[in-house]
Protein backbone atom coordinates (compact mmCIF):
# COMPACT_ATOMS: atom_id res chain seq x y z
CA UNK A 1 0.00 0.00 0.00
CA UNK A 2 1.68 3.18 -1.19
CA UNK A 3 0.92 6.83 -0.57
CA UNK A 4 -0.76 8.46 -3.54
CA UNK A 5 1.35 11.58 -3.11
CA UNK A 6 4.89 10.42 -2.26
CA UNK A 7 4.76 6.67 -3.00
CA UNK A 8 6.09 6.01 0.52
CA UNK A 9 4.47 3.40 2.80
CA UNK A 10 0.82 4.28 3.38
CA UNK A 11 -0.90 4.11 6.79
CA UNK A 12 -4.51 4.52 5.70
CA UNK A 13 -6.71 3.83 2.70
CA UNK A 14 -9.59 6.14 1.85
CA UNK A 15 -11.91 4.30 -0.46
CA UNK A 16 -14.01 7.27 -1.47
CA UNK A 17 -10.86 8.98 -2.73
CA UNK A 18 -9.69 5.65 -4.14
CA UNK A 19 -6.30 6.34 -2.59
CA UNK A 20 -3.88 5.52 0.22
CA UNK A 21 -1.84 8.02 2.22
CA UNK A 22 1.24 8.09 4.43
CA UNK A 23 1.02 9.85 7.80
CA UNK A 24 2.26 13.19 6.56
CA UNK A 25 0.02 13.30 3.51
CA UNK A 26 -3.02 12.04 5.36
CA UNK A 27 -2.67 14.82 7.95
CA UNK A 28 -2.25 17.31 5.12
CA UNK A 29 -5.35 15.90 3.41
CA UNK A 30 -7.38 16.44 6.60
CA UNK A 31 -6.21 20.05 6.91
CA UNK A 32 -6.87 20.63 3.20
CA UNK A 33 -10.40 19.26 3.50
CA UNK A 34 -11.14 21.56 6.43
CA UNK A 35 -9.65 24.53 4.63
CA UNK A 36 -11.70 23.70 1.57
CA UNK A 37 -14.94 23.51 3.57
CA UNK A 38 -14.17 26.81 5.31
CA UNK A 39 -13.44 28.54 2.00
CA UNK A 40 -16.26 26.99 -0.04
CA UNK A 41 -18.95 27.90 2.49
CA UNK A 42 -17.39 31.15 3.77
CA UNK A 43 -17.29 29.84 7.34
CA UNK A 44 -14.40 31.89 8.70
CA UNK A 45 -12.14 34.74 7.70
CA UNK A 46 -8.40 34.74 8.45
CA UNK A 47 -7.62 35.79 12.01
CA UNK A 48 -11.18 35.47 13.29
CA UNK A 49 -11.77 34.36 16.89
CA UNK A 50 -13.50 31.01 17.04
CA UNK A 51 -15.00 29.17 19.97
CA UNK A 52 -14.83 25.40 19.48
CA UNK A 53 -17.43 23.28 21.27
CA UNK A 54 -15.23 20.53 22.71
CA UNK A 55 -16.67 17.27 24.02
CA UNK A 56 -13.43 15.36 24.61
CA UNK A 57 -14.22 13.13 21.60
CA UNK A 58 -12.21 12.67 18.42
CA UNK A 59 -14.17 15.08 16.22
CA UNK A 60 -14.06 18.18 18.39
CA UNK A 61 -10.42 17.66 19.39
CA UNK A 62 -9.38 17.09 15.76
CA UNK A 63 -11.31 20.21 14.79
CA UNK A 64 -9.65 22.33 17.47
CA UNK A 65 -6.23 21.01 16.48
CA UNK A 66 -6.75 21.72 12.78
CA UNK A 67 -8.18 25.22 13.32
CA UNK A 68 -5.21 26.20 15.48
CA UNK A 69 -2.91 24.71 12.87
CA UNK A 70 -4.60 26.76 10.17
CA UNK A 71 -3.91 29.93 12.19
CA UNK A 72 -7.30 30.69 13.69
CA UNK A 73 -7.51 32.10 17.20
CA UNK A 74 -9.48 29.12 18.48
CA UNK A 75 -10.43 28.63 22.13
CA UNK A 76 -12.33 25.62 23.46
CA UNK A 77 -15.56 25.41 25.40
CA UNK A 78 -16.46 22.33 27.41
CA UNK A 79 -19.92 21.82 28.83
CA UNK A 80 -20.24 19.33 31.70
CA UNK A 81 -23.56 17.57 31.20
CA UNK A 82 -23.55 15.60 34.45
CA UNK A 83 -23.77 12.23 32.68
CA UNK A 84 -21.92 10.24 35.36
CA UNK A 85 -18.47 8.82 34.61
CA UNK A 86 -18.81 9.67 30.93
CA UNK A 87 -18.82 13.40 31.66
CA UNK A 88 -15.94 13.17 34.16
CA UNK A 89 -13.87 11.21 31.70
CA UNK A 90 -14.56 13.36 28.67
CA UNK A 91 -13.78 16.54 30.65
CA UNK A 92 -10.39 15.05 31.45
CA UNK A 93 -9.58 14.50 27.77
CA UNK A 94 -10.58 18.05 26.88
CA UNK A 95 -8.47 19.52 29.70
CA UNK A 96 -5.45 17.38 28.94
CA UNK A 97 -5.52 18.34 25.27
CA UNK A 98 -5.78 22.05 26.13
CA UNK A 99 -2.91 21.74 28.60
CA UNK A 100 -0.71 19.87 26.17
CA UNK A 101 -1.18 22.56 23.52
CA UNK A 102 -1.22 25.55 25.87
CA UNK A 103 -4.71 26.51 24.69
CA UNK A 104 -7.54 28.25 26.48
CA UNK A 105 -10.43 26.04 27.55
CA UNK A 106 -13.59 27.57 29.02
CA UNK A 107 -15.77 25.26 31.06
CA UNK A 108 -19.33 25.37 32.33
CA UNK A 109 -20.80 22.64 34.50
CA UNK A 110 -24.54 22.29 33.93
CA UNK A 111 -25.40 20.82 37.38
CA UNK A 112 -23.28 23.41 39.21
CA UNK A 113 -24.49 26.44 37.29
CA UNK A 114 -28.08 25.54 36.41
CA UNK A 115 -29.02 23.00 39.06
CA UNK A 116 -29.73 19.92 36.94
CA UNK A 117 -27.94 17.21 35.01
CA UNK A 118 -29.10 15.78 31.69
CA UNK A 119 -30.47 12.41 32.92
CA UNK A 120 -32.36 13.98 35.85
CA UNK A 121 -33.46 17.06 33.93
CA UNK A 122 -34.78 14.98 31.04
CA UNK A 123 -36.75 12.78 33.43
CA UNK A 124 -38.22 15.72 35.29
CA UNK A 125 -39.13 17.52 32.08
CA UNK A 126 -40.39 14.29 30.43
CA UNK A 127 -38.12 14.76 27.44
CA UNK A 128 -35.77 12.32 25.74
CA UNK A 129 -32.26 12.82 27.20
CA UNK A 130 -30.81 13.79 23.80
CA UNK A 131 -33.55 16.35 23.28
CA UNK A 132 -32.86 18.02 26.66
CA UNK A 133 -29.14 17.74 25.97
CA UNK A 134 -29.33 19.22 22.46
CA UNK A 135 -31.42 22.12 23.69
CA UNK A 136 -29.01 22.81 26.58
CA UNK A 137 -25.96 22.58 24.35
CA UNK A 138 -27.37 24.93 21.73
CA UNK A 139 -28.31 27.48 24.36
CA UNK A 140 -25.10 27.35 26.39
CA UNK A 141 -22.77 27.21 23.37
CA UNK A 142 -24.48 30.28 21.90
CA UNK A 143 -24.34 32.02 25.24
CA UNK A 144 -20.62 31.28 25.66
CA UNK A 145 -19.80 32.53 22.15
CA UNK A 146 -21.82 35.70 22.69
CA UNK A 147 -20.35 36.50 26.10
CA UNK A 148 -16.83 35.82 24.90
CA UNK A 149 -17.28 38.05 21.82
CA UNK A 150 -16.26 35.27 19.42
CA UNK A 151 -16.80 35.69 15.69
CA UNK A 152 -18.12 32.15 15.30
CA UNK A 153 -18.96 28.96 17.12
CA UNK A 154 -17.49 25.81 15.56
CA UNK A 155 -18.82 22.31 16.20
CA UNK A 156 -17.26 18.96 15.30
CA UNK A 157 -20.09 17.58 13.14
CA UNK A 158 -18.48 15.39 10.50
CA UNK A 159 -19.69 13.95 7.22
CA UNK A 160 -21.17 10.86 8.90
CA UNK A 161 -23.14 13.06 11.32
CA UNK A 162 -24.50 15.32 8.62
CA UNK A 163 -25.41 12.46 6.29
CA UNK A 164 -27.20 10.65 9.14
CA UNK A 165 -29.15 13.76 10.13
CA UNK A 166 -30.04 14.31 6.49
CA UNK A 167 -31.25 10.73 6.22
CA UNK A 168 -33.47 11.14 9.31
CA UNK A 169 -34.89 14.43 8.08
CA UNK A 170 -35.51 13.04 4.60
CA UNK A 171 -37.17 9.83 5.78
CA UNK A 172 -39.76 11.95 7.55
CA UNK A 173 -39.65 14.89 5.15
CA UNK A 174 -39.02 17.29 7.99
CA UNK A 175 -38.79 20.19 5.63
CA UNK A 176 -38.22 22.87 8.27
CA UNK A 177 -35.13 20.97 9.46
CA UNK A 178 -33.98 20.35 5.90
CA UNK A 179 -34.07 24.11 5.31
CA UNK A 180 -31.75 24.71 8.25
CA UNK A 181 -29.32 21.85 7.62
CA UNK A 182 -26.39 23.91 6.41
CA UNK A 183 -22.66 23.82 7.16
CA UNK A 184 -22.81 27.49 8.13
CA UNK A 185 -25.59 29.48 9.78
CA UNK A 186 -24.98 33.19 9.66
CA UNK A 187 -25.12 35.28 12.83
CA UNK A 188 -28.48 36.92 13.41
CA UNK A 189 -30.39 38.71 16.15
CA UNK A 190 -27.94 37.87 18.91
CA UNK A 191 -27.12 34.32 17.75
CA UNK A 192 -23.47 33.77 16.79
CA UNK A 193 -22.44 32.41 13.40
CA UNK A 194 -22.29 28.61 13.56
CA UNK A 195 -19.90 26.60 11.44
CA UNK A 196 -19.15 22.92 10.84
CA UNK A 197 -15.68 22.78 9.29
CA UNK A 198 -15.43 18.94 9.44
CA UNK A 199 -18.20 18.25 6.94
CA UNK A 200 -15.70 16.98 4.36
CA UNK A 201 -14.15 14.43 6.77
CA UNK A 202 -15.62 11.12 7.90
CA UNK A 203 -15.64 9.78 11.43
CA UNK A 204 -12.97 7.23 10.57
CA UNK A 205 -10.77 10.01 9.26
CA UNK A 206 -11.09 12.21 12.37
CA UNK A 207 -10.26 9.16 14.53
CA UNK A 208 -7.20 8.41 12.37
CA UNK A 209 -6.20 12.09 12.50
CA UNK A 210 -6.22 12.03 16.33
CA UNK A 211 -4.26 8.80 16.52
CA UNK A 212 -1.63 10.01 14.08
CA UNK A 213 -1.34 13.36 15.89
CA UNK A 214 -1.09 11.70 19.31
CA UNK A 215 -4.37 13.22 20.53
CA UNK A 216 -6.01 11.15 23.26
CA UNK A 217 -9.81 11.22 23.14
CA UNK A 218 -12.74 9.59 24.90
CA UNK A 219 -13.60 6.45 22.94
CA UNK A 220 -16.79 5.41 24.74
CA UNK A 221 -20.06 6.65 23.34
CA UNK A 222 -22.32 8.64 25.64
CA UNK A 223 -24.48 6.06 27.51
CA UNK A 224 -27.59 8.08 26.64
CA UNK A 225 -26.99 7.36 22.94
CA UNK A 226 -28.14 3.74 23.26
CA UNK A 227 -31.10 3.12 20.97
CA UNK A 228 -30.63 6.51 19.33
CA UNK A 229 -31.99 6.59 15.76
CA UNK A 230 -29.04 8.70 14.71
CA UNK A 231 -26.74 5.71 15.33
CA UNK A 232 -29.03 3.43 13.32
CA UNK A 233 -28.90 5.84 10.36
CA UNK A 234 -25.12 5.96 10.61
CA UNK A 235 -24.94 2.17 10.55
CA UNK A 236 -27.25 2.01 7.52
CA UNK A 237 -25.17 4.59 5.69
CA UNK A 238 -21.97 2.69 6.53
CA UNK A 239 -23.45 -0.41 4.90
CA UNK A 240 -24.29 1.60 1.79
CA UNK A 241 -20.82 3.15 1.79
CA UNK A 242 -19.19 -0.30 1.73
CA UNK A 243 -21.10 -1.15 -1.43
CA UNK A 244 -20.76 2.27 -2.93
CA UNK A 245 -17.74 4.29 -1.71
CA UNK A 246 -18.49 8.00 -1.79
CA UNK A 247 -22.24 7.55 -1.34
CA UNK A 248 -22.34 9.52 1.93
CA UNK A 249 -20.42 12.38 0.40
CA UNK A 250 -22.64 12.46 -2.68
CA UNK A 251 -25.82 12.23 -0.60
CA UNK A 252 -24.89 15.18 1.63
CA UNK A 253 -23.14 17.44 -0.85
CA UNK A 254 -25.69 16.65 -3.55
CA UNK A 255 -28.37 17.82 -1.14
CA UNK A 256 -26.49 21.06 -0.41
CA UNK A 257 -25.92 21.79 -4.09
CA UNK A 258 -29.19 20.71 -5.61
CA UNK A 259 -31.94 20.54 -2.99
CA UNK A 260 -31.28 22.54 0.15
CA UNK A 261 -32.25 25.90 -1.39
CA UNK A 262 -35.79 24.62 -2.01
CA UNK A 263 -36.46 24.36 1.73
CA UNK A 264 -35.06 27.74 2.77
CA UNK A 265 -38.16 29.81 2.00
CA UNK A 266 -40.12 27.92 4.65
CA UNK A 267 -37.44 28.64 7.24
CA UNK A 268 -37.58 32.36 6.42
CA UNK A 269 -41.38 32.34 6.57
CA UNK A 270 -41.50 30.52 9.92
CA UNK A 271 -39.01 32.84 11.54
CA UNK A 272 -40.65 34.64 14.46
CA UNK A 273 -39.62 38.02 15.82
CA UNK A 274 -36.99 37.64 18.47
CA UNK A 275 -36.77 39.51 21.77
CA UNK A 276 -34.59 38.95 24.84
CA UNK A 277 -35.72 36.09 27.08
CA UNK A 278 -37.32 37.47 30.22
CA UNK A 279 -35.11 35.30 32.39
CA UNK A 280 -31.71 35.05 30.75
CA UNK A 281 -31.71 37.68 28.00
CA UNK A 282 -31.01 35.23 25.15
CA UNK A 283 -32.93 35.86 21.94
CA UNK A 284 -36.22 33.99 21.76
CA UNK A 285 -39.61 34.23 20.10
CA UNK A 286 -41.39 32.79 23.12
CA UNK A 287 -41.14 35.29 25.99
CA UNK A 288 -39.22 32.79 28.10
CA UNK A 289 -36.69 30.78 26.10
CA UNK A 290 -36.83 26.99 25.79
CA UNK A 291 -33.75 26.51 27.97
CA UNK A 292 -35.17 28.57 30.84
CA UNK A 293 -38.40 26.61 30.58
CA UNK A 294 -36.45 23.34 30.68
CA UNK A 295 -34.46 24.61 33.69
CA UNK A 296 -37.68 25.55 35.47
CA UNK A 297 -39.13 22.10 35.00
CA UNK A 298 -35.90 20.26 35.73
CA UNK A 299 -35.31 22.10 39.01
CA UNK A 300 -38.90 22.40 40.24
CA UNK A 301 -39.94 20.30 43.24
CA UNK A 302 -42.20 17.46 42.05
CA UNK A 303 -45.45 19.17 43.05
CA UNK A 304 -44.60 22.22 40.98
CA UNK A 305 -43.70 20.29 37.85
CA UNK A 306 -47.27 20.00 36.72
CA UNK A 307 -47.50 23.75 36.40
CA UNK A 308 -44.19 23.91 34.62
CA UNK A 309 -45.27 21.09 32.30
CA UNK A 310 -48.28 23.15 31.37
CA UNK A 311 -45.98 26.03 30.58
CA UNK A 312 -43.70 23.82 28.47
CA UNK A 313 -46.62 22.51 26.44
CA UNK A 314 -47.57 26.00 25.33
CA UNK A 315 -45.84 27.22 22.26
CA UNK A 316 -45.45 30.82 23.38
CA UNK A 317 -46.49 31.34 27.01
CA UNK A 318 -47.80 34.72 27.97
CA UNK A 319 -45.56 36.74 30.20
CA UNK A 320 -47.89 36.41 33.19
CA UNK A 321 -48.13 32.62 33.02
CA UNK A 322 -44.41 32.29 32.48
CA UNK A 323 -43.58 34.46 35.49
CA UNK A 324 -46.00 32.61 37.74
CA UNK A 325 -44.78 29.16 36.76
CA UNK A 326 -41.09 29.79 36.91
CA UNK A 327 -39.19 29.57 40.13
CA UNK A 328 -36.24 31.87 40.65
CA UNK A 329 -33.38 30.42 38.73
CA UNK A 330 -30.50 28.88 40.60
CA UNK A 331 -26.99 30.18 40.48
CA UNK A 332 -26.31 31.63 37.11
CA UNK A 333 -22.56 31.60 37.23
CA UNK A 334 -20.99 32.72 34.02
CA UNK A 335 -18.51 31.03 31.81
CA UNK A 336 -15.38 30.13 33.77
CA UNK A 337 -12.35 30.98 31.73
CA UNK A 338 -9.51 28.63 32.52
CA UNK A 339 -6.24 29.73 31.12
CA UNK A 340 -4.15 26.65 30.93
CA UNK A 341 -0.53 27.41 30.45
CA UNK A 342 2.63 25.35 30.43
CA UNK A 343 3.43 21.99 28.94
CA UNK A 344 4.66 20.78 25.68
CA UNK A 345 4.21 23.23 22.89
CA UNK A 346 3.85 21.67 19.52
S1 LIG B 1 -24.15 13.79 24.61
FE1 LIG B 1 -26.22 14.53 24.74
FE2 LIG B 1 -25.18 13.21 22.70
FE3 LIG B 1 -25.35 12.02 25.11
S2 LIG B 1 -27.30 12.90 25.77
FE4 LIG B 1 -27.57 12.47 23.62
S3 LIG B 1 -27.07 14.40 22.66
S4 LIG B 1 -25.90 11.11 23.12
S5 LIG B 1 -23.96 14.01 21.04
ZN1 LIG C 1 3.00 10.49 1.35
ZN1 LIG D 1 -33.85 32.15 28.78
Give an overview in words.
With 346 residues, the protein is α/β, with parallel strands linked by helices. The chain has a domain at 37-272 and 334-339: HUPs (Rossmann fold). The protein contains 15 helices and eleven strands. The strands form three sheets. The chain has a seven-stranded mixed β-sheet with strand order 7-8-6-3-4-5-11, sandwiched between helices. It has a two-stranded antiparallel ribbon with strand order 1-2. It has a two-stranded antiparallel ribbon with strand order 9-10. It starts with 11 loop residues before the first strand and ends in a 7-residue tail after the last strand. Residues 311-346 have low confidence and may be disordered. The site of one zinc ion has 7 residues, from helix 13. One zinc ion binds next to helix 13.
Features:
disordered C terminus, binds Fe4 H S5, 11 strands, seven-stranded mixed beta sheet, about 350 residues, two-stranded antiparallel sheet, alpha/beta
Measured between the Cα atoms of the first and last residue, the distance is 29 Å
List the bound ligands: Fe4 H S5, zinc ion
- Count the E strands: 11
CATH architectural arrangement of the domain at 37-272 and 334-339: 3-Layer(aba) Sandwich
The gyration radius over C-alpha positions equals: 21 Å
Amino acid sequence: MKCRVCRGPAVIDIRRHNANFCREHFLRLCRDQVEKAIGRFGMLQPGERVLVAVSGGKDSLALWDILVDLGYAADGFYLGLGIGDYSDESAGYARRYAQSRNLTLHTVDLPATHGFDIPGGARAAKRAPCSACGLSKRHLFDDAARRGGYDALATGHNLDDEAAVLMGNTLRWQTEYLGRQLPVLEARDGFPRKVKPLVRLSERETAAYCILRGIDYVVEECPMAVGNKHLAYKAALNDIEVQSPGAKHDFYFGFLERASERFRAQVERDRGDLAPCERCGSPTDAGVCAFCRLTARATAPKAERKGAAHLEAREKPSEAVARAALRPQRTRAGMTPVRISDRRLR
